[in-house]
Write a structure and sequence with these properties.
The protein has a single domain, classed as Rossmann fold (3-Layer(aba) Sandwich), CATH 3.40.50. The two termini are 26 Å apart. The chain is globular and about 40 Å long. 43% of the residues lie in helices and 13% in strands. By secondary structure, it is an alpha/beta fold. Strand 5, helix 6 and strand 6 form a beta-alpha-beta unit. Strands 1-6-5-2-3-4 form a 6-stranded parallel beta sheet, with helices on both faces. Bound molecules: magnesium ion. The site of magnesium ion has 7 residues, from loops. Magnesium ion (MG) binds next to loops.
Amino acid sequence: MIEIFLRNKYFYPNEYHKTIYDVNFNNLKQKGFRYILIDLDNTLIPYDENLANENVDMLIKKIKSLGFEVMIISNNKEDRVKKFSESIQCSYIYSARKPFKFGFKKALKKLNNPSKDQVVLIGDQFMTDVFGGNRMGFYTVVVDAIKRKTEKWYTKLNRKLETRVLNRLKRKDFEYYEKLHLGEKR
Ligand SMILES: [Mg+2]
């Protein structure tokens, strides 16, 4: 059963980077994207921190200055997502239930229903961010988790599946795997 699921074409991200700071936002702008949806936990800050640090703050300002609209989309609870997002003056979706479409649809509505090919989704997980974002038809960017140690049990479970997805990609589509440097993903 699970093997069939892992064959899913939606596990292919468009880009992989070590951190969100390595993403070339100028390039994304030139490609015609206008909206950046960003996962919160382990993409911008680890689970054991609550607010944006200076680097996050500067990054968000930089992305906005390029003309992007930025939204935080997280499966975490309202309290955490709201406090964080407001501190960097971003709109947000909490309890998004990625990889299901529910939260993404809410996000699109909040952005006045842009065309899906103008939307980039950046996150650290294959099972929630990449899979969900691709299902929506977004351009997906995956980054390494900031700190894996403090992840919860269900995320640890997702990581096990993620390892299998990566192994499968390597085996079945080595050229793509190499092109994205997925061998460096931790
Ligand atoms: Mg995350």
